[in-house]
UDP-N-acetylmuramoyl-L-alanyl-D-glutamate--2,6-diaminopimelate ligase
Amino acid sequence: MKNFFKKSWWALKLFFTRIYYSNPSKKLKIIGVTGTNGKTTTATLLYKISTELGYKTGLIGTVENIIDLEVLPHDEKSPSTTPDSISLTKLFKKMVDAGCEYVFMEVSSHALDQGRVNGINFTGGIFTNLTHDHLDYHKNFQNYFLAKKKFFEMLPNTAFALSNMDEEHGNAILDKIKANKFFYGFEDLSGVGHPTIDFYGRILNLDFSGLKLDFNGEIISSKLLGKFNAYNLLSVWSASKLLNFDMTKVNKIIEKIEPPRGRFEHFLSKDGIIVIIDYAHTPDALEKVLLTIKEIKPDNGRIISVFGCGGDRDPLKRSKMGKIGASLSDIAIFTSDNPRNENPEKIIDNMKNDLTHEENQKVVTIADRRLAIEESVRLAIKGDIILCAGKGHENYQEIKGEKKHFDDIEEFRKVI
């Protein structure tokens, strides 16, 4: 009964907040991006393209919220990917007052399950992919899928729904929705288009200089690296088409864009060691990043990975990530990644559960993340690639309920 009154009070408060602010979402063209991986990159790239085209634009996401060009860092006490409904309404009002026309926002499964985006007037929605994550909250994969599907079911018939056709759930997630369906993908390698794919792509070149791509017969170059970024770029390019942006200008903007902070961010040391910082914190994301590195690394270079798994979160993915990291790296350093209230050593033990004897021989365990980073640099020689995964843009470690400043990039630059 107490929970009922709490929900009713919140619904009433939201209703009057939207009336007070004159339903600001109805005055904006809001495009939501959902999926396990790629949300931040996709939303950020669309924000940058729209801004470069001269539109006043808002961004709502994991790293930061932006109103036109004003960056609003997250409240550290509640750094949600998607804010609560009342906070969103206030953000939209500020964006309207700033003259914004477009808003690109990440839409998380938690937000969808909790109804945080209900009642928002979306112009379009983008689906990136769906892999193992957040099962500590959703309990099983079906619930996780259904939470994501809610987003596309709420889109009106005037909106577009853009989905990754190469993804196992890409078709099902748009099943029986009102919005106009569109698909993108790389599966058609003939270059003539697949009847179910509206926007098809081919990778023409992939190395440490970036990507060269063919999108519907148009040649696109990008500084971004990896096959997973080819998908992000194709979704962004497709959405730009659906928004009727000037594609000649969009293609030129894509060529100049740098990757978002902590998303395959990389630099070369004076000793010829490549360091890559990436937010990959799911089995699928870690596998994609490591496979990308394997595709573009020098023949004589080794892969040294540094990563961990979060505490008080889905324990089932720990052994999967440990297996992926150990099998695809020459040396894998298992360490901490926001252990929260758990013992870091216990988390690392969970990561080692499914390793073969051969894989176990490649693993080094160092619970202190700073010391793990130092060890990775000590072990590396010219031509090696160090991947530090899991935190990306985050500048803290959460240990025993306390957030302490910690930035992977800062730590590497100190050591190197």
The first helix runs from residue 2 to 20.
